[in-house]
Amino acid sequence: MSMYCTENHYNCDAFIMLYITLLLSLIATPVLVSAFEPEPTCTCQPTDGYLVTRLWTIVDANMTDQDVIDEFNEGFAPIVTHMNGFQRYTAAKTGNSSTVFFMNAFDTEELAHGAQEAA
């Protein structure tokens, strides 16, 4: 500490305490931040299985993204939800009115592939 506490410094002890306090606060900061991380807002979906996604582009100017979702919910959703290995089915708007997102989750790749062919 001789380079910081010379004869010109009248309060060397105070400087050392400030230095130690600063050092300890830097060490403790990550611990304090991690203690206050927000909790997730939902539980994660199943992590085992196989996920298939599709983006459908609407080419019929008379159909909206909601029309396509409704058509799939009435036609395909009742079929896919009863297929072997089914876990989850989702249809969603994308923010682009000419594109719709679909997702299926199944126990295995083979079962998911069968659902993809059925779509």
Automatic annotation (TrEMBL):
Record's protein name: Uncharacterized protein
Entry keywords, A to Z: Membrane, Transmembrane, Transmembrane helix
Bilayer-spanning residue ranges: 12-36
Superkingdom to which the source organism belongs: Eukaryota
Organism: Skeletonema marinoi
Keyword Membrane annotated: yes
